[in-house]
Specification:
Blueprint (H helix, E strand, L loop, with lengths): L3 E7 L5 H12 L3 E5 L12 H5 L11 H12 L4 E7 L4 E9 L4 E5 L7 H4 L4 E6 L2 H14 L5 H20 L8 E4 L5 H17 L7
Parallel strand pairs: 1-5, 1-6, 2-5, 6-7
Antiparallel strand pairs: 3-4
Helix pairs in contact: 5-6
Amino acid sequence: MRPLIIGIAGGTGSGKTTLVENLKEQFGADISVLPHDNYYAAHHDMSLEERQTLNYDHPAAFDTDRMIQDLEDLKAGKTVQCPVYDYAIHDRTEETLTLAPNKVILVEGILIFENKALRDLMDIKIFVDTDADVRILRRILRDVKERGRTLESVMEQYLTTVKPMHEQFVEPSKRYADVIVPEGGKNLVALMMIVQRIAYHIEHGDVVDEQ
């Protein structure tokens, strides 16, 4: 069975992860997730202070070529070693995550539609669209509680890189989406439509050309 590859994009704090978690809960072992964040470029040669000043919301911050290769390998039925990123140290770790081919592969990240070669590998492209004020509040809660950041550092990063990069790269990539979902995983109508499409693929094992 050729995998159904679904891209889930949207701004920081838009609800992408909630949507992904809902789909994983629904389909369990039939879904694998390939997060773009895992492919942040390694900066082992820099100090922590230097890494903290980098722009992590620009396409150049990612090793997208490796992600494309891994997705092509998964599509061809090969197992890949996905890199692992540590937000606390702002760097890639020495660990890798073994990811086997699966019936459905979710590709998730803020900039996955910005790269044509990457988005051309996707059968369905979903953009999660959420108001900016909601997204920044969610990002503050996440980064402070889960990633050990200070409120000041989160706000400074948002104003200096996150917001301008969203306006320059993320928001314009919405035009490539096949489906735009307001409020992400909280949109139950959209969630059920996506669930039905995935269930059809798992049952019938064929991929309709969505391009």
